[in-house]
Model the fold of this input.
Amino acid sequence: MSLRLEDFDYTLPPELIAQTPLPDRSDSRLLVLDGNHLEDRSFAHLPGLLHPGDLLVFNDTRVLHARLHGVKATGGQIEVLIERAIGPHEALAQIRASKSPPTGTRLRLADAFDVTVLGRVGEFFHLRFPDGDDLLNLLERHGKLPLPPYIDRSADDHDESRYQTVFARSPGSVAAPTAGLHFDQPLLDQLAAQGVRCAWLTLHVGAGTFQPVRVSDLGAHRMHRERYVLPAETVDAITETRRAGGRVIAVGTTSLRALEGAAQDGALQAGTGETGIFILPGFRFQVADALITNFHLPKSTLLMLVSAFAGMSAIRHAYAHAVANAYRFFSYGDAMFISRQDHAV
Done:
């Protein structure tokens, strides 16, 4: 099948892009998609879709205070968005400035410390931070939470808690694993009492997740890479779930990418790695039986991923239903529960 970027477009009224979270995490709506069957539910009713012995796999990454403002030596204003830490004192970053800073440039950030531009790595700048303090500590003290570009406001104190999952514990992301934002502790406790198990992995979401696809021929697109950690106990939990006849349910596209990326050699492998997996319709899924996910941007690689998981026609139908019924879209929006459809188109 020859796939074009235009195959993954849809019309979204701007007023459906959620700008703020709902009062409670599980207040969101949940669109259930199984083949061509759709059902409107509340996220609080998720336990009714799960069975004892099912396994939820969560991403426990924590969002960094990755946005920094500063000045060049000339006095020009800059904005720095950390893509990823690559050591205790170095990072890759996007820099927004009137003119790109050349190698060797020193930048003053947050009116608190200086960084040096060491060079370029692809589209990112390689920055050296001061030796006297750990990079993550500097970001926590001086940086700002980086809300996605489609949220047209700055982060406030409420976002400090609501743009993190309740189980976030491994700092390293510049965007939240948003499907996990719908879970609160009472819901997790209810699922545990029901006999639904939980397992964990870490995938640090990079700023590349928001980069548009710039080619019409999707065979020419190259995915950004993201680092993950898949613990042996999670692989064991997946094996045990399969043996007992339960379902493996990925919470979020980040969890799904890590799981499927770690199974590309034929068997699910525990450990640390990087995935640049590009999931398009026709992809053969090996791990996840179902997916909990938010709604995704038109022409995005994540919309392509869910189209591969559910079938392109089913996703088109589901998104048209969501728009017609005024679902809330993107990071602070509503969610879907999708059952995998092999060989769907």
Summary: The mean pLDDT is 94. The chain has two domains: 5-63+158-339, 67-144. DSSP finds seven helices and 17 strands in the chain.
